[in-house]
Specification:
By secondary structure, the protein is of the alpha/beta class. It is built from 6 helices and 5 strands; from the N terminus they run αββαβαβαβαα. Helix content is 39%, strand content 18%. It has a 5-stranded mixed β-sheet with strand order 2-1-3-4-5.
Length: 142
């Protein structure tokens, strides 16, 4: 999770949304990524999507786990289910409850670490850039 947090901080430092993700198999990091919606002007480049894109074609995701600083949204959860990633470990789900039930209903084990560091980072970001956050979660009024 510490590497996912580093990725989230990297995104924030680049002017993006502080969400990071890491894909792990057999205790080794396969790929890492962070939310790049702002940096690359790409509406679907969430942290998990960037991470999986960076993993490339690895064949099977069997035995892998994906770490994310925030509970995945339905788009990212759908990709996790599609790729049959069996386990998701999240830093927090207080600021965004995401698609936990959806993933669990498809057999994905979801572990919420409820980390203060992740909660505080997202709360500070949301307070500082509420319009960007609302755009990210599809709640922007326009």
């Amino acid at each position: 999770m510490q590497e996912a947090i580093k990725q989230a901080k990297k995104s924030w430092g680049e002017g993006g949304i502080p969400i990071g993700s890491v894909l792990v198999r057999d205790g080794e990091i396969i790929a890492k990524g962070h939310n790049k919606r702002v940096q690359e002007n790409n509406p679907i480049l969430h942290g998990e999507m960037d991470c999986l894109n960076n993993a490339g074609r690895i064949g099977s995701f069997k035995g892998s786990s994906i770490y994310s600083t925030l509970m995945p949204c339905y788009m990212c959860a759908g990709t996790i289910v599609q790729f049959k990633i069996p386990k998701v470990i999240v830093g927090e789900s207080i600021t965004f409850s995401g698609a936990r039930e959806f993933m669990e209903s498809h057999g994905v084990e979801v572990v919420d670490m409820k980390l203060d560091e992740c909660i505080e980072m997202m709360q500070a970001f949301i307070k500082d850039k509420p319009e960007l956050w609302n755009e990210d979660i599809g709640e922007l009024d326009q």
